[in-house]
Amino acid sequence: MLSGKEVAQHDSKESCWIIVHGHVYDVTEFLDEHPGGSKIILKYAGKDATAEYDPIHPPDAIKTNLPKEKHLGPVQPDTVEKVEVETTDEEKARLERVENKPALAEILNLHDFEYVARQIMPEKAWAYFSSAAEDEITMRENHAAFHRIWFRPRILRDVTNVDYSTKILGHNSSMPIYISAAALGKLGHPDGELNLTRAAAKHGIIQMIPTLASFSFDEIVDNAQPGQVQFFQLYVNKNREVARRLVEQAEARGIKALFITVDSAQLGRREKALQLIQDMNQEHTSDPSKVTKAQLGTSNVTQEASKPMPAPSTVLDPGLCWKDIFWFKSITKMPIILKGVQCWEDALEAYDQGLAGCVLSNHGGRQLDFSRSGIEVLAECVKHLIDKRDLTFPNEKFQLFVDGGVRRATDVLKAVALGATAVGIGRPFLYAFSTYGVDGVNHALDILKAELEMNLRLVGAPTLKDVVPEMVDASNLSSHIVAVPKDSLFEKNCE
Ligand SMILES: Cc1cc2nc3c(=O)[nH]c(=O)nc-3n(C[C@H](O)[C@H](O)[C@H](O)COP(=O)(O)O)c2cc1C
């Protein structure tokens, strides 16, 4: 058994050992590959990194990513020095805000969760969840696009009872909403993705489990209720045997659909997150004679941050193409849906290849900035699938989903009117559990249900079948008016 003293000697980039859950790992050769960069590992070189590791990684990540010979074995617990984490004044202030956050009952809509999250989440977690690509234009456009669709309600219909339940890929869902996949849930709350599993069970909706969850896939499935329907989101690993194993594991555990992410040939450049890394680096190498970016008010990008966002080297494959999708069809009976389709030509191809559907999505604006909103792409896809393939929508055999910027039941109803089977929601649920745990997600779902009920009545639709294209005026949907956000680097430079 190794001693803490021995481990402490390997505290440099030439020889870097760390302790995680009482075991020692030699990560020297992994430093440059680490998706979060080498600096954060080096901070814990020769030390116990468990507290930093836990919120971000599934428990088995280090074991599965490092070759066996780099697992150096257990360490004598009483010989390991405790890593003191200093509580800064900023952190003290944040903890005070956590204490004083509004009662859950005061949260009136999904935007409120975001407001509270921004005030009380740890900076790193907020940066990861809220960031989007480059100038974040697409992220804002995702919600703004819903503002360009207006209702044409019907009157004098009996809406005493309204029913917003539906079927998604043949499975019951209490509303036309599912929880979209988002990585690293534990950054926001110790129970991370399990908050979503539990709330989904309570509310009868479906959770899409991400490949890069911070709990292991089995842990998330084990936390589901008997019969609870879950979907799986797949990042196709360069090593197709890894991809095959993930698909087979999902199918064996009863996952009902495979959503393959197709908008991520490379990770988008999320500058809010990069800026944070940069700021942290500046803190550690504080040199009073240096002009910092904050002082300059413009982009004085260090070498580290000017690199593309570090990405898991094998998790995303820029070589992924249609022939791989055919291969997936050959290895699974699960329905396959492409997540991240952004124009009608690709939706048509997916239909022609016999897939079960598409999610019209731009990854919450985190990938290609200036990609169009999912709701705009929906209208275009429906039109062409009707014109060219004689389909009707919503369609049972080929289902269209939308995600990105859905914050209100009115957004959901607009998507349904335009032909979507259901919509995916990402950030609002992350903010809900980051601020109030599972109660937050349950409250968010209660809000959505109340909004759905009210708005179905007000548009004069007793069921979702009555929410038809004629109920909306989407004639302005593809007019792109970009409001430049006040907090963007672009805007700061124009001041
Ligand atoms: C923090 C975060 C992590 C995400 N991680 C993934 C992921 O691992 N795989 C994936 O396909 N999509 C991922 N997404 C995209 C979501 O599945 C979804 O497309 C997006 O969040 C919808 O936009 P919204 O956040 O405005 O609702 C992530 C989104 C966020 C905000």
TrEMBL record:
CDD domains reported in the protein's UniProt record: FCB2_FMN (cd02922)
GO cellular component: mitochondrial intermembrane space
Domain Cytochrome b5 heme-binding: 1-76
Substrates-to-products reaction catalysed: (S)-lactate + 2 Fe(III)-[cytochrome c] = 2 Fe(II)-[cytochrome c] + pyruvate + 2 H(+)
Domain FMN hydroxy acid dehydrogenase: 102-477
UniProt enzyme class: oxidoreductase
EC number: 1.1.2.3
Record-level GO BP terms: lactate metabolic process
UniProt-listed SUPFAM superfamilies: Cytochrome b5-like heme/steroid binding domain, FMN-linked oxidoreductases
Keywords: Flavoprotein, FMN, Heme, Iron, Metal-binding, Mitochondrion, Oxidoreductase
One Gene Ontology term of the molecular function aspect: metal ion binding
Needed co-factor(s): heme b; FMN
Subcellular location(s) of the protein: Mitochondrion intermembrane space
InterPro entries in the record: Aldolase_TIM (IPR013785), Cyt_B5-like_heme/steroid-bd (IPR001199), Cyt_B5-like_heme/steroid_sf (IPR036400), Cyt_B5_heme-BS (IPR018506), FMN-dep_DH (IPR000262), FMN_HAD (IPR037396), FMN_hydac_DH_AS (IPR008259), L-MDH/L-LDH_FMN-bd (IPR037458)
PANTHER family the UniProt entry points to: L-LACTATE DEHYDROGENASE (CYTOCHROME) (PTHR10578:SF148), S -2-HYDROXY-ACID OXIDASE-RELATED (PTHR10578)
Protein name: L-lactate dehydrogenase (cytochrome)
